[in-house]
Design brief:
The chain has 53 residues and is α+β, with helices and mostly antiparallel strands. It has one domain (2-51). It contains 2 helices and 4 strands.
Length: 53
């Protein structure tokens, strides 16, 4: 999975297995901002259940 720091734009990548089923808080090495990284499959499932109601 690839993502960017929303504050400074630094690029990161993390294995899908590390993120799977979890929500991670990761500190940006460039600007020290805290990023929240979510499993994309988990986010999609949540959106499906919300839009179904």
């Amino acid at each position: 999975m690839k993502f960017r720091c929303e504050h400074c734009g630094a690029k990161y990548s993390i294995s899908d297995e590390t993120v799977r089923g979890r929500i991670l808080k990761i500190r940006c090495r460039a600007c020290q901002d805290i990023m929240v990284v979510r499993d994309p499959a988990r986010s999609m499932g949540s959106m499906d259940s919300i839009s179904a109601h």
